[in-house]
Specification:
- By secondary structure, this protein is mostly helical.
- The chain has a domain of about 90 residues.
- The chain has six helices and no strands.
- The longest helix has about 50 residues.
- The protein is elongated, with a radius of gyration of 36 Å.
- The N and C termini lie far apart (about 110 Å).
- About 5% of the residues have low confidence.
């Protein structure tokens, strides 16, 4: 029991010090007769002329929810509705980016990777001149950028593959001629159908 005595005293001291630290300073209790301080909250005023209304991006958000649920046609309709109702350049640009993104999804009813590529290349110029876009639109924009880079890489690989196939065919022909020459066999005439 004596071994626990210092630990118990330490705990009691901590509780007393903690209790004193959490109590309000004397003179500022609820019983004081002085005026109460006014608390200032950083909330928008009711007559605020804010740039964005609370429901401005509601259709855009619903479109992303539909996109998440793989309801692509519904998402397209929400993005188009957002574009139609919000009459700002920013909203128009954001809707076009979202629709271009829908165009690169193979299961989407508007799947057309070439049209998406061309559309997004045109949108790139507009994006640089606009204010920051809605967060999810920025993610979609990054996805489209990645898509363009991959598409460009695939195009380069296809060209390289075609070049290599051509070179391989030429080498196979050269090997066949060398084999025929070393064996002393006359090359066979090309078969005519």
């Amino acid at each position: 029991m004596l071994n626990h005595y210092p630990i118990v005293l330490s705990l009691i001291a901590l509780l007393l010090v903690g209790g004193c630290a959490s109590s309000p300073p004397s003179g500022s209790g609820s019983g004081s007769a002085g005026p109460a301080e006014e608390i200032t909250l950083n909330m928008p005023q009711r007559n605020c002329q804010c740039e964005t209304s609370p429901g401005e991006e509601a259709f855009l958000e619903k479109g992303f929810e539909s996109l998440h649920d793989e309801q692509y046609l519904e998402a397209l309709q929400y993005f188009q509705r957002y574009q139609r109702l919000e009459k700002t350049d920013r909203a128009d640009l954001q809707a076009k980016i979202a629709i271009a993104y829908l165009s690169i999804i193979p299961d989407s009813p508007i799947y057309d990777s070439e049209a998406a590529r061309d559309s997004y290349r045109q949108l790139r110029q507009q994006i640089a001149t606009h204010e920051p876009l809605y967060g999810k639109i920025q993610l979609v924009q990054d996805s489209l950028e990645t898509f363009l880079e991959m598409d460009s890489g695939i195009g380069n690989l296809k060209q390289e593959n075609a070049r290599l196939r051509e070179e391989l065919a030429k080498r196979e022909q050269a090997i066949k001629r060398l084999r025929d020459l070393t064996l002393g066999v006359e090359p066979a005439p090309a078969a005519t159908p």
